[in-house]
Write a structure and sequence with these properties.
The chain is an alpha/beta fold. It is built from 8 helices and 7 strands, in the order βαβαβαβαβαβααβα. The radius of gyration is 17 Å and the shape is globular. The N and C termini lie far apart (about 45 Å).
């Protein structure tokens, strides 16, 4: 069996007609790596053609693997399941829509190879008329994270995080959220665990052809609720 150096987890849910093109662009970046890699799709019970597309990819290349959820469990659970199933000493996840380019992957891998336990993306935005509300919501949330739970990071929510797998597994075992708050929680718990965390600036370009599964207002309210609950439960640890 060939040793896997890097595992990339792709959490997938109703990815739509842009999905196969996005995976191909990720595949082209990974093919240039001088290490052994795998892609782990975690299919979260989509109701569109996402599962069928994943099955085609898995059948086409030995480096593609898949986990199929029997019911929808949320993005955080999908990422968590992928990390646990990974064979790579380095693992990471990115949002499959590629609004943050897969071309950053080698940079994030290099950061872990150089001694960081965790590398997280800090998004800088290409502003367009369709992205203004998304930018405002993201920046506002980051400010609240800093104020409410005192995290020192500029951006906890970017779906682009890489890990030393051995170091992140104990943190992952304590991470409870199965949804979008997973990103904030794992950053907080990694900080408490004294992991070495590096922030890497990236450009975020909103895709006009991709419908986001983020619901701006209800998701923002849910984030606020979870932030307050998290502070109440873990304020001692975060001091």
């Amino acid at each position: 069996m060939v040793k896997v150096d890097f595992s990339l987890i792709l959490a997938c849910y109703n990815e739509g007609p842009t999905f196969e093109e996005s995976v191909q662009s990720i595949f082209l970046v990974l093919k240039l790596l001088k290490i052994n890699w795998e892609i782990i799709f975690v299919e979260d019970k989509s109701v569109d053609e996402t599962k069928r597309s994943i099955e085609k990819f898995v059948a086409s290349d030995k480096n593609f693997k898949a986990i199929y959820h029997k019911k929808n469990q949320g993005r955080g659970k999908s990422v968590s399941d992928g990390i646990k199933a990974a064979d790579g000493t380095i693992c990471g996840f990115i949002d499959v829509d590629c609004e943050i380019s897969p071309s950053y992957i080698p940079l994030f891998i290099e950061e872990i190879e150089n001694g960081s336990d965790m590398a997280i993306a800090t998004r800088y935005y290409e502003i367009s008329s369709g992205s203004v509300m998304r930018v405002v919501a993201s920046k506002s949330y980051c400010a609240l994270v800093s104020k409410i739970i005192s995290l020192p990071f500029k951006d906890t929510e970017a779906g682009y995080k890489f890990f030393n797998r051995k170091k992140i597994l104990p943190v992952l075992s304590k991470t409870r959220d199965h949804g979008w708050f997973f990103d904030t929680e794992i950053c907080a718990r990694a900080l408490v665990a004294n992991l070495k965390i590096t922030e890497i600036p990236v450009l975020f370009i909103k895709r006009p052809d991709k419908k986001s599964t983020v619901r701006l207002i209800p998701d923002s309210i849910e984030y606020m609720r979870k932030l307050v609950q998290f502070r109440q439960k873990f304020s001692q640890d975060l001091r």
